[in-house]
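I hope you will forgive my troubling you with a question about protein structure. The matter concerns a single protein, recorded as an amino acid sequence and a row of backbone structure tokens. Please examine both parts with care and let me know of anything in them that strikes you as inconsistent. Here, with my thanks, is the record as I have it:
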Amino acid sequence: MSACQRFETMIESLASSELDSRELSSLLAHTRECESCRGLLSLHGDLTEAAERVPQPDDAELDLRQERVLRVIAQRRSRRPLRVALFAASLILPFVAGVLAGRASGAGSSASGRSSRLIDALHAEAASNGKLAAVEDSPFTYSNVSWRRVGEDRVALDFDVTTHLSSTEPLRSPLVNEVLAQSLLNPSSVGERLKTMSFAASELDPKLEQAVLFSLRHDESVAVRLAALTVLVGRSDDEDVQSGLMTALHDDPSVQVRLAALESLAARRVDHGRIREAIRGQKQPGDEALMVRLAELERQR
């Protein structure tokens, strides 16, 4: 995580009153030097002030607003670039969620109906997202993802889309794969990411496979990257998977991950000349051990 990404997270925590005094001092010191983060902090302040000036709608008006927001997001999704779409969702949905939370205690049945409509919207979005690129461009950002199996054919999902949602789904529901793919794109805890890898090992649809490949390339945890390799090892004949394994062999900072990628590629009879080039390409620690292992595998052929 870059310095600015860390401070952007602090700005979000400040907006939700979750920042302690030490972190606040660090944030303010950074924004004095960083124009980008200073502008983001100012924007959050403007949005907070604007939200405070907006009168609370009654239940009927709130229902109409939520439906209008979801409709606008759906209309704009096809023509907005990724970062703009996510930024729009981050501005619009938290406001709706905040009003929902503020009124939930006095309008239980209405809040339940709105939650149901949001789940329906998530189902529709998940069903329309056939590839990982579509998940990345989704107007919904999932976080705090956890899940558990319920019997043989159901999955209980717990996740946040600004406000917390819970839903029990059929095992092969598009929403299950959507949420679990999001848990790898927008990482939850290491434990949950490893649990998602165990799910992917038995229920790997194309979209989830791409999310596993994303984790192999980008996840900060060696354990998660190794789990991703384990999931993908049986699919290394696939061109995208083979490319991902080659990238791991060439770029991954962990010798353990690189060795696992080497074993997987060699087991699939990938040209050893390509493997040797990938090992030598970066001149990383562990290259010698990998070359020794490659020579052993060549003698065993």
